[in-house]
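LysR family transcriptional regulator, pasting as requested.
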Amino acid sequence: MKLHQLKYLVAIVENNFNITTAAEKIYTSQPGISKQLRLLEDELDLKIFERSGKQLIGLTALGEDVVKHARRALQEVENIKRIAQDKNKVESGSFSLATTQTQAKYVLPEVFKRFHARFPNLQIDLQHGSAEQMSDLLDKKQIDFAIASDNTNLSPDVIKIPCYHWDRVIVFPQDHPLGDLTKPTIEDIAKYPIITYKKPAVGESSLVKAMKAKGLQPNIVFTARDADVIKTYVRNGLGIGIIASMAFNPRTDQDLIGFSAKNILPRCTTWIAFNKNLLLRRYMYSFIELFAPHITREWLNGYVNKEIPVDGGIISQGEEQSLPMHRIGNA
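Structure tokens follow.
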């Protein structure tokens, strides 16, 4: 068994069992990959792939186990390289992170500015996506970190660390009737069409849950992942918007009124996640320090190694309640 055979195996799985596409992605030939797969199956004396004629259509039950261990083996090889790079203070290459539009635009610019000043030779690859897409990228180790606020359950191989809380803001035009109220209530909000973030893939959003708890049915007429898109449609009279507090700026959004929903809707929690099989390099610890200064390297290592009590794989409820609130420029 050779490492390049495991690399080919994983590449095929990550390219929907298309050998030609996998070969292009890893800069080798389709016949070469096919030959190495046959050799691997012969050596292991087991069938890794389900086939339809010459077409690969999936993994056998044993094949799934083989791929899982192949990924771990390749990651351990990468981790050995990371140890050497940290020892030799090699701080070049690529740092990849997936996040939401709100985090990318309103939270991370200052963090990355300071991060880049510390590690100018690192290329930063910032991707956008849903929490489900980020989870898939983490499982495949195609990104270093993911940052989001969704309540998505991640795989057992992913460590999810809550970093800070934030509240939502209700936004509406200056001439909207809500502007005449001193303290709008959840009942007041429910009277109007709502524009807000796309609902999670599984379950209901906390907005919907909060309204249903009061016997209300929200009239959500438009959803988007982008807070700026939501504000655009609020400006066009489609409804009132509900967005993250960091996405509303009274100076640049002067045509809108922003009312804090902290006493109306439950708080949200932003988390950072990474694959537990990934060896964290020095610059990764530095990024976490810049993003969430209250999370020290010592605390993080204790958390990863289960030396700090956790509840269901997530930080204990007592500690989560003590998380700081997000402040612009203070991430």
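Note for the archive: Confidence is low (pLDDT under 50) at residues 309-320.
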